[in-house]
Every structure is written in structure tokens, then in C-alpha cells.
Design brief:
mainly alpha, 79% helix, 240 residues, single chain, 12 helices
Length: 240
């Protein structure tokens, strides 16, 4: 994977020439600012629990927009041909694209560190839960980028890639959470086990300040599965 960093640098730099990326960044920061304002209430315990919880829902829609063109644009413009015929394998392409998109997501998160500074200046906020919240959001972001990259490898249409990614993220994030919220204890044992594996239900401990190794393994494993599937899609399309 020697060439993956080169692809990652090219990919992350391309975001700064894309108007869609700036629109997504603007919408994300507006939503994050509003959520922080709801957290930053005089007389209430200082923290970022609210922004961390709701940020997951925002990313369900923002990250598919950021990742929809990672491979579908290459297919539609024909630039995938010279890329795949170069002395580079599919794993380099997938890891490079993933690192580039994830790197831009990290850039997207950097301005939110201002909220941490404000909390420390005007309150006695504990940094432990804030650190675990950021760790959880980064793990969620990596998983969402991997899903978006996988969907982008399946089609030439960026719109279809984005819609498919939103549908998958909705299915693995919002649906299990809604099942537990609405059904609660009425869920049978097997269904409750399935619902507990939802992304938000796995992430919730991080926003509470709890770092669970099992949850970290879950996010890393599922992210790896989607990256592996993307590699297999590229391998299959190479020979068509």
C-alpha cells in the first residue's frame, strides 16, 4: 500500500476545489453550532453530550454527500481507466480514497474544538467525556465514509451513490435506535440483540464518557468489512 498516501493527498486536496464540499461543510458547521448552543445553557451542567448525540444524525446525510463522488466520478469521467492500469492495485486505491475522505472529515471536525475552548473558559467542563465523545464521532465517521465509498464503487451516478449510502446508514443507525426507543422491552431476545448492534446504540457509551473496547472493535471491524467489499467490487469491475 505504498501508493495509498499519494492517492489520499490528491483526494483530500480535491475537496478544497469542490463547491459541494464547501456546502456540506457550511451545513455541518451550522448544525453543529446550533446543537452546541442548545448544550451551552447557563445553570446546566457543562458538556457536549447533546451535540455528540445529534451529530451522528447529521453525519448520516452529510458524509454520503462528501463520499458520493469518490469512485462514481472516476467511473463516469473515465479517469478510473488510467488509475487502474497504473502500477497500483485495488487496495491502494480504496485505502487512499478512504484516507482522503476521512482526512477531510477530520478537517470538518476541527472547528468544533472551539466549543471545547469556550466550555473551559466559561465553565468547569470535564474533558474526559468530551475526549470519548470525539473518539466515538471519529469512529462513526470512519464507518460512514467506508459505507459511502462502497456505494460510490457500485455506480457511475453520484446521486444514486449518495441515496444508497443514506439508505444503508439509515438502516444501520436510525432504525435500530428507533426500534429500541419505541418497542423497548417488548422486543424479543433475538430482535433486541440485533437492535443493540445499531451504530448509534454502539456509539451512545462514547457520548456518555465511557470507552468500551468492544465498541471500538465493532467500528473497526465493520469499517474494514466495507473497505474489503469495495476492493472486491473494484477487482470484479477490472475484468469486465
Amino acid at each position: 500500500m505504498k501508493r495509498a498516501p499519494v492517492i489520499a493527498r490528491r483526494e483530500i486536496s480535491s475537496y478544497f476545489y469542490s463547491p459541494i464540499a464547501y456546502v456540506a461543510m457550511f451545513l455541518f458547521l451550522v448544525a453543529a453550532g446550533y446543537l452546541f448552543w442548545r448544550d451551552f445553557v447557563p445553570g446546566q451542567p457543562a458538556g457536549m453530550r447533546n451535540i455528540f448525540d445529534w451529530m451522528v444524525w447529521v453525519l448520516v446525510f452529510i458524509i454520503p454527500v462528501l463520499s458520493m463522488g469518490l469512485l462514481s466520478q472516476e467511473w463516469s469521467t473515465g479517469t478510473i481507466e488510467p488509475l487502474m492500469t497504473a502500477p497500483i492495485d485495488e487496495t491502494d486505491v480504496v485505502i487512499g480514497k478512504f484516507l482522503g475522505a476521512f482526512g477531510f472529515f477530520v478537517v470538518l471536525m476541527v472547528p468544533t474544538l472551539l466549543y471545547v475552548v469556550l466550555l473551559k473558559l466559561y465553565s468547569q467542563a470535564e474533558l474526559g467525556p468530551i475526549f470519548s465523545g470525539y473518539l466515538g464521532i471519529l469512529l462513526v465517521g470512519a464507518l460512514f465514509v467506508a459505507v459511502g465509498l462502497f456505494c460510490s464503487s457500485l455506480t457511475r451516478s453520484q446521486v444514486i451513490a449518495a441515496v444508497t449510502a443514506v439508505a444503508i446508514l439509515f438502516l444501520i443507525t436510525i432504525v435500530p435506535w428507533e426500534m429500541l426507543r419505541v418497542e423497548g422491552s417488548t422486543l424479543g431476545g433475538a430482535w433486541r440483540t440485533v437492535a443493540d448492534q445499531g451504530v448509534f446504540n454502539r456509539y451512545a457509551d462514547f457520548s456518555r464518557g465511557v470507552i468500551n473496547l468492544a465498541h471500538i472493535v465493532f467500528f473497526v471491524a465493520v469499517t474494514s468489512v466495507f473497505l474489503f467489499l469495495t476492493v472486491k467490487v473494484l477487482e470484479s469491475r477490472r475484468w469486465k
